[in-house]
């Protein structure tokens, strides 16, 4: 039995086997928060302290703000657990993991309709952010090499995209010293406008970015039209400007639900595509992918050959060490689900999103922006007649029931528009949708009483959670 008098530092870890978890001293004292503790503590106490504290977090299954996977099959979890200790970058030690990685790249290139005559290449990343930065970095280098060879200046590169992009696009421009030419949104258009892109293009444009399913509304940029614009520019001016498609969410939905929609390597100027394995790729957080149409779209100068780990190996990621399990879990999903499985899951998600959108629209309280048309996303504004409360009040009220729903304002020039968004994932059944709908209606009723309102959150309201 542990003495109540003992201080945290005095407890002998060997006492672990004798004390029941909650009878230990550690539970009536604050846990160390600033200084690394001098003494150890029993494993069961450390586990339980952290485990219990995390109960404060939201329930991931009720987190409708996130695109990121919150459920995987037990067999996938087993595989992840078995491979947590393998550093993905150690290709020499774990050659089979690399082979499996390359199979995933092959499958994705084909899923995105890479032309047969091309030698597509790609890599896994930590997520779409790293994938986008790598994709754009490759375009910057290709542009620079071309300008250098032509004896032209290469010190003023620019990249063009819409204000509806994820923050990682802006990060790329700032971190890698590329001028950002951002097309603002409009009151009635939340996607990239081709006529505005046309005005911004010049010989220093390293790439144009387009999104298949924006973070803000789930809508798609006009990819076919942008491709046509870039073909026209190539013909008229001789500038071969690549189109990078940010298919972070759409890349694992559209190929299965709307295979005839043309957005990928079927379009000539689409030279690179990113997708998040941990969104609709249905893998837990930590995996993304970038695929280049052809190896010539990736400059060899960005490939580093290192021999730290017992063999020469090429690497072209921003990070070095990272876990293998995300990649292996992605391959598990590819084998387990196949196209058939992804098609069924994504169709369910879309139908559930469309069902929810219909109910919300019928209620007369919302103006719909996206009704689960392209992605399983429901994005809406409060109807104009509702003036007594905001989407921030509604999101706050729903949090009392455990639901997490994103409320945010759109980027410039539509920053006066506030949106509420529901991301429907595979583990969100029709019954859960019905419960959510009832709770939204209940929250609206309560908010009609003025005392129930909350202030908008103080965090940056322009950015939805993703
Ligand atoms: C369109 C889009 N691009 C990029 C990202 C960043 O993706 P990741 O979180 O995988 O880095 C997101 C995240 O939601 C996104 O929605």
Features:
globular, 11 helices, 7-stranded mixed sheet, 466 residues, binds pyridoxal-5'-phosphate, alpha/beta, Aspartate Aminotransferase, domain 2, 3 domains, MYOD Basic-Helix-Loop-Helix Domain, subunit B, 4-stranded antiparallel sheet, Aspartate Aminotransferase, domain 1
N-to-C CA distance: 48 Å
| Overall form | globular
CATH H-tier superfamily of the largest domain:
Type I PLP-dependent aspartate aminotransferase-like (Major domain)
Average residue-wise pLDDT: 93
> Bound compounds, please?
pyridoxal-5'-phosphate
Top CATH class of the largest domain: Alpha Beta
Helical fraction equals 25-40%
Number of domains: 3
- Please report the number of helical segments: 11
Largest sheet: 7 strands, mixed
Secondary-structure-derived class: alpha/beta
Strand content: 5-15%
CATH topology of the largest domain: Aspartate Aminotransferase, domain 2
Radius of gyration over all CA atoms, rounded: 25 Å
SSE order, as H and E? HHHEHEHEHEHEHEEEEHEEHEEH
Q: Which residues sit in consecutive blocks of at least 5 with pLDDT less than 50?
A: none
Strand order of the largest sheet: 1-7-6-5-4-2-3
Quickly give the CATH architecture of the largest domain. Answer: 3-Layer(aba) Sandwich
């Amino acid at each position: 039995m542990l003495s109540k008098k003992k201080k945290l530092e005095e407890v002998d870890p060997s006492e672990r086997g004798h004390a029941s978890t909650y009878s230990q001293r550690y539970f009536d004292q604050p846990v160390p928060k600033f200084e690394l503790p001098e003494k150890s503590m029993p494993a069961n106490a450390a586990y339980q302290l952290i485990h219990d504290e995390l109960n404060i977090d939201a329930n991931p299954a009720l987190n409708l703000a996130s695109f990121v996977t919150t459920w995987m099959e037990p067999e996938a979890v087993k595989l992840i657990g078995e491979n947590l200790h393998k550093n993905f970058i150690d290709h020499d030690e774990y050659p089979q993991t690399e082979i499996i990685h390359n199979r995933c790249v092959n499958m994705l290139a084909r899923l995105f309709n890479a032309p047969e005559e091309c030698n597509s290449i790609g890599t896994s990343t930590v997520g779409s952010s790293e994938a986008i930065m790598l994709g754009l970095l490759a375009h910057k280098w290709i542009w620079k090499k071309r300008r250098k060879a032509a004896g032209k200046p290469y010190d003023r590169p620019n990249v063009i995209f819409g204000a509806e992009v994820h923050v990682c696009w802006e990060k790329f421009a700032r971190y890698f010293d590329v001028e950002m030419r951002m097309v603002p949104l409009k009151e009635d258009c939340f996607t990239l406008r081709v006529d505005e892109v046309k005005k911004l293009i010049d010989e220093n444009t390293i790439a144009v970015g387009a999104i298949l399913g924006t973070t803000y509304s789930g809508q798609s940029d006009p990819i076919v039209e942008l491709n046509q614009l870039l073909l026209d520019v190539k013909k008229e001016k001789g500038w071969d400007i690549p189109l990078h498609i940010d298919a972070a969410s759409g890349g694992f939905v559209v190929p299965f639900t709307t295979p005839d929609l043309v957005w990928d390597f079927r379009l000539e100027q689409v030279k690179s595509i990113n997708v998040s394995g941990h969104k609709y790729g249905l893998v837990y957080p930590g995996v993304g992918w970038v695929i280049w149409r052809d190896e010539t779209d990736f400059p060899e100068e960005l490939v580093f050959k290192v021999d730290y780990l017992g063999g020469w190996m090429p690497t072209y990621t921003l990070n070095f060490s990272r876990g293998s399990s995300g990649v292996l879990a992605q391959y598990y999903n590819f084998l387990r689900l196949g196209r058939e499985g992804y098609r069924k899951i994504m169709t369910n998600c879309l139908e559930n999103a469309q069902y929810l959108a219909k109910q919300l629209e019928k209620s007369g309280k919302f103006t719909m922006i996206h009704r689960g048309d392209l992605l399983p996303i429901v994005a809406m504004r409060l109807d104009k007649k509702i003036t007594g409360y905001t989407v921030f009040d509604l999101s706050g009220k729903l949090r009392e029931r455990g639901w997490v729903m994103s409320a945010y304002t759109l980027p410039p020039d539509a920053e006066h528009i506030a949106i509420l968004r529901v991301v429907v994932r595979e583990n969100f059944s029709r019954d859960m949708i019905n419960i959510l709908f009832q709770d939204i209606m209940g929250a609206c009723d309560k908010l009609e009483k003025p005392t129930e309102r909350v202030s908008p959150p103080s965090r940056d309201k322009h950015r939805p959670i993703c």
